Write a sequence for this structure.
């Protein structure tokens, strides 16, 4: 099956509408009828500013990078990105075509 992978990168401490942004993204995707999504915490990351963040026991609470990923169709991808733009949320994202399916 042809689909799109949409990955959104943000800091764990980012908030929108009174909740963590990653949680808001998952809820909005579900409302749009997107079949599934996942949020992952990075163990280490750096961005355009070159600052390396590594996850340690307590020192960087709230500073970890979170990746939120969806596999969806082109229309759903456009809808979700338009919603993020309309809410004035500034996020870096990757979107690319993928082949997907299930085994068994």
């Amino acid at each position: 099956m042809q689909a799109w992978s949409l990955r959104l990168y943000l800091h764990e401490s980012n908030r929108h509408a009174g909740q963590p942004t990653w949680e808001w993204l998952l809820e909005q995707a579900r409302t749009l009828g997107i079949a599934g999504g996942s949020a992952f915490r990075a163990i280490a990351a750096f961005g355009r500013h070159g600052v390396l963040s590594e996850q340690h026991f307590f020192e960087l609470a709230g500073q970890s990078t979170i990746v939120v990923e969806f596999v969806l169709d082109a229309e759903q991808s456009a809808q979700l990105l338009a919603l993020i733009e309309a809410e004035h949320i500034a996020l870096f994202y990757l979107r690319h075509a993928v082949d997907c399916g299930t085994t068994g």
